[in-house]
Specification:
The structure holds two protein chains of two kinds. Chain A is an alpha/beta fold. Chain A has eleven helices and eleven strands. The radius of gyration of chain A is 22 Å and the shape is elongated. The chains are: A alpha/beta, B alpha/beta. Bound molecules: iron/sulfur cluster (4 copies). Chain A: GO terms for molecular function: iron-sulfur cluster binding; metal ion binding.
Amino acid sequence: MSPKLTIAVASGKGGTGKTTVSASLSCAAADAGYKVAYLDCDVEEPNGHLFLKPEIDCRHLVGIPVPVVDQKKCVACGACGQICQYSAIVCINKNILTFDKMCHGCGGCALVCPAGAITEKSRSIGSIEGGSAGRISFYHGNLFVGEAFSPPLIRAVRSTGCNGLNIVDAPPGTSCPVISAIKGADYVLLVTEPTPFGINDLDIAAGMVKELGIPHAVVVNRHDPDNTLARDFCRDRGIKILAEIPDDRRIAEAYSRGALPYSAVPGYRELFKELLISAVKEAKW
Amino acid sequence: MVKEITVISGKGGTGKTSLAASLVSLAENTAVADCDVDAADLHLVLNPRVEQVNDFSGGKSSAIIPDKCTGCGKCHELCRFGAVVKNTDQKTVFTIDPIACEGCGVCSYFCPEKAIEFKQAVNGQWFISSTRYGPMVHAKLGIAQENSGKLVSLVRSQVKIIAEEKGLPYIIVDGPPGIGCPVIASVTGTDCVLIVTEPTLSGQHDLERVVELINFFKIPAYLCINKFDINPEMSDIIEKKAMAAGVKVVGRVHYDRNVTGAQVKKLPVVEMPNTPAAADVRTMWSNLLQEITAATKVS
Ligand code: SF4
Ligand code: SF4
Ligand code: SF4
Ligand code: SF4
């Protein structure tokens, strides 16, 4: 058995309860005696700390390498501007202009420069904070406001964690940020709500994890026994439902003040305990 | 002059799309754009009839031509995105993972054998459609594709052309959640932003970040507190904080199960007669219009 298991909690649509599920699972895992880390990769809007209330004890900046041009060495050949696919460096009238915010840090310009005029410096795009919430190791990334590219920061958050169970709170959606968060995970839980919007977005998210080849299952949030949208969808697609969290006003109220159903609403401890057991079993850990 | 109203939320799941659909219905004669290209839902309510389908290319991507590759490893060494994967089977030593490839072109440029093709990739599709309210531009990003910011910019520029051609007064844009690249692409240069939030601790936290972003780009912004009665005290706190940041509250909408009911019926909630949410959204729309008209007069 590998000592490390990474379960990512994702959803196509935002606001379906990803943070509720991932933070509650982390608490359940800690209570069950696992070594566990919670990694908040929703770096555009990190919320896990509002519920887990960690004590932060370290912080560092995450940057990407951007070019610095030594105009004295530059021979104005224009090669840097030609290789750059993102218009982040251009040569106009023998002057080199760089646009750091557009740079993806590929390193191409420094490599092609025949005059050795380009070096690189790190430009911060966000920060990572780490600490602990009871027995849970806690990490989250914080994208600086005005920054467009979150994947390098998300990858940096993913590289933290522990040599045990790692629970990743992924950003919503299905494009580059989510992929950076769930790539390499052993198992993905897709949280959905049984509404037309929820199912439409689940459909896209399920396609994404399938494309990535990661085993996955669904958690239905705000479940209402009369509504079979999610059950029908999962049956048709052959995706397992590991838990159904009822549409309970007490959960919404607890959530509004930053409390988790796991600890704040009677009766939910069991539900998350069982979800943890089945997720770990499904992930074949 | 056409006015572009962009609906965003910071936090997902606050009811942004339902609200945007209602604004479209209330505006009566308007152009519509769905810029939540990652998880587009607006079409589920507006039922657009697609009239034109176009491919979207957000950039290039690389692929190794196995017959030319000598397995020297240069590409693997230079790629900073871990997209050149070393294979364990003997046939081809290296392949490029299209999902991880950022399309920077470095591998292709430096391959000594010219064994790497670097060409335009199709990352999705965009559509020009008609709805019972007016023209709509929307898109579908391919699964696991990037460059949603570019696709957002494309959708916005297309809808603008159509709205101007037809002399429509408004463009209503359903924007993406978050504060990253697709959001920045959705709000830069828009006439005003309507932020939809909910009275929760997470809602408040995400609102602060999205307001910071809006102020960073100096865009006039208004706030709607959805489901305000879930936590009225929190709604008051949010309203105060928003005012302090220069964002005026134009509406408070009751928590109302008819919002989901409308979704199931594929209708904007304002078209559900005698529902509390519909009445609240109507009031909000007229407040918003007043604010926009006043702001136009001043400038
Ligand atoms: S590092 Fe890459 S993206 Fe950045 S400026 Fe150079 S070529 Fe462009
Ligand atoms: S590649 Fe080097 S020498 Fe050529 S224009 Fe760019 S910085 Fe100047
Ligand atoms: S650099 Fe070119 S020849 Fe060398 S391994 Fe890569 S594709 Fe093959
Ligand atoms: S194009 Fe850039 S990101 Fe893609 S494989 Fe080549 S070096 Fe890597």
